[in-house]
Amino acid sequence: MADPAVTILFEGQPLACRPGQSVAAALWDHGVKVLSHSPKYGRPRGASCARGHCMGCLMRIDGVPNVRACNAPVREGQRVERQDAGAVYGRPMQAALANTGHLLPVGFYYKWFTKPTAVAKLFMRAIRPVAGIGRLPDEAAWRGAPPPPRSRDLGRWDTVVVGGGAAGLAAVLAGEGRTLLIDDSRLGGGQRREALDLAAAGEGDPLAGLHRLRRLRAVLHERDALVAAAPHVTRAAATTVVGCYQPDMLLVRDATGLAVARADRIVWAAGALDQLGLFDDHDLPGVMGPRALYRLAGRDGIDLRGRSAVVWGHGPDQWLSAALLHARGAQVVLALDPTAAPDDDALATAGRLGWRLLHGVRPAAALGRAGSLAALRFDDGQGGARREAACELAVMCGRGKPVYDGAYQLGADLVLDPLRGGYVPRGAVAGRWDGDTPAGLRLTIAGESAGATLADLLQEVTP
Questions:
Q1: Phi/psi of residue 369, each to 5°?
Q2: The domain at 1-147 falls in which architecture?
Q3: Helix 90-100 / helix 117-131 crossing angle, nearest 10 deg
């Protein structure tokens, strides 16, 4: 690492990190992928979603437990610890649980140990390090600390758009009146913008034969420039919606704290979350979805040079993930799902760039070493011969899970539709739903949050 500017202490060991990285990314660059363990069975956990939606990276940072390492930036002298390894018996107990867990009956629950009181206290004190709950904060972390700032009022808007991807930018440009655009990405264009830019700049031009992705990149840049020039639009970048309250209020968090905003109309275009699929040991650190990759390789710039990576699935996110990994110096294995549509230009690009291709396979198991991913095992889904691909990173590119929580909190009528990835608005047509909530709010749900896929969105922007 050239000219490191930040040194953190990971369990007492100094590690040199690049400024601006998250703690999770910095540890990844130093080969530390196991960040915590699951509370019940002690399974290894690592950076999985990379956006604060899961608990795989909960760590103790500067004496504070349960901090999401994927969202915590590195700071000089920062103290980072795995919070379930604080006792000398923690790791041996994890190993014992991993080897004897099959002996525990279904429905076993540790809170059965409640009597007598003295035994309960002793048991809870012993179980906390093993369960990943963490000790209470160090006294120095809270004594004398200033109170959190009061939430700010961002005022009332004609329209608030949540999500700055293709659907969100289109909604902003089609709207009227004072508009607030809220997006958790730092760049306009959503979570794929930075991945597209990095892939386009990669050696060998990985996007050269991926025509629809090239068009998407151009459209995102065009729309972002129009939004930036629009006088009626205010952008809130690197800002996350943490709660919605009927009839018309959003609670958001940015670098300065919490704020509230109200609107006559809300457009919910928050996109989708990764779904990894079901196969043996799919939760090993190193297995992630494309959106997590975009953040770790884009925003955090993890070191992928020479590392082996498998990209499985179908659709545009698979090709973008492979292009991004190639641009970052990884050795790419492209494993195509049996449902993957043939694309001669894309396959020609894969051949030109030297990607290894596996056709018509499905993941059967993730194989681990030292608690993290070492290989993926595939089969053809019909009981045929199995194949393995060694890898440190596996990106599973299936249908995303629509982000529905804010729309639900605002009163949207949602239905569970497995064919569209999860909960989507009842009656959505072509990836869009418009209507009034029971509280009288004009609400629009658009893009992947309404059940559309990236392929659907690409059809709209590709002539």
A1: -150, 130
A2: Roll (3.10)
A3: 90
DSSP E strands: which ranges in 302-421? 308-313, 331-336, 356-358, 362-369, 372-379, 387-390, 393-397, 401-402, 414-417
Secondary-structure class of domain 152-273+401-461 per CATH: alpha beta
C-alpha closest to that of 233 among 156, 170, 180: 180
The residues, ordered by sequence, that sit 6+ positions from 332 with a Cβ below 8 Å of its Cβ are 309, 311, 322, 325, 326, 353, 355, 356
Which residues on neighbouring strands pair with residue 308, listed in sequence order? 331
Beta strands 372-379 and 362-369: pairing type? antiparallel
pLDDT tens for 175-231 read 889 999 999 988 889 989 999 999 999 988 899 889 999 999 999 999 999 999 999
Can you tell me the mean pLDDT for 131-152?
A: 80
Domains 152-273+401-461 and 287-397 alike in fold:
yes
* Residue 125 amino acid letter: R
Per-residue pLDDT band for 87 (boundaries 50, 70, 90) equals very low
155-178 burial by CB neighbour count: b if 16+ within 10 A, else e? eebebbbbbbbbbbbbbbeebeeb
Q: How many C-beta atoms lie closer than 10 Å to residue 291's C-beta? A: 25
Gap between the Cα atoms of 90 and 439, Å rounded = 50
CATH class of the domain whose range is 287-397: alpha beta
Question: Mind listing the pLDDT tens digit for each residue in 368-423?
Answer: 998 899 999 998 766 666 889 999 999 999 999 999 999 999 999 999 999 999 99
Domain boundaries, the chain: 1-147, 152-273+401-461, 287-397
SS3 205: coil
Mean pLDDT, residues 132-148: 79
Q: Cα 184 to the chain's mean position, in Å? A: 12
Decide if pLDDT at 303 tops 90: yes
User: Please, which residues have CB within 8 angstroms of residue 16's CB and are 6 or more apart in sequence?
Assistant: 1, 4, 6, 7
User: Model confidence at 40, in pLDDT bands (50, 70, 90)?
Assistant: low
